[in-house]
Amino acid sequence: MNTASLHKFFDHCVGNWSTERTYHYLTSQEVERSHTDFQIKKLDLTRKLKVLNDNQYPIPPDTDTLPGFALGFQTVSEHGEKVSQDLNILFVPQTQDGNILEGDYLRDRAYEESRPIISHFQFDLKDRELLMTTHYTRVISVDSITLINPKLRIRRIYNYQRPPEGQPLEEMRLVGFGVEQKTE
Description:
Layout: H1 4-13, E1 15-25, E2 30-42, H2 45-54, E3 68-77, E4 82-97, E5 100-107, E6 117-124, E7 129-135, E8 139-149, E9 152-161, E10 172-182
Antiparallel strand pairs: 1-2, 1-10, 2-3, 3-4, 4-5, 5-6, 6-7, 7-8, 8-9, 9-10
């Protein structure tokens, strides 16, 4: 499995980012803008082990080389609502099929639900797109980060109503788009 491009992608993500987003709430037909500042640092081995243990995930033999982040963000909506969060994220690549790496995406705190969570990721080596899919209690979130260059990322967020087990994703509740620029 060739993880060099994945590691390079994550190396470019480290730093401070400023983001402008637009959210389209399809259930209420509302549109909202927000501004987010992200602080992204590499995750040290102690925090990697914490994320694995919090999720009761088997400790891989190569834990020290797995890509991971300590992520902090502060968001202010156009209505003045403020949200801040700090969390630790770890990516465990498992398979490669052509240009697509896949694996588990673990967090010690989820965005929608304040608990440890294991999600799925795909990384397109050619297009430098990271696609993360999380199954929450009520929604399934599909989050995409495309690295255009080391200082510019495009973000897409799709939240679907969680369908019954085995059924396709059909009822979209939220669509978000963002432009993320590195500030440091």
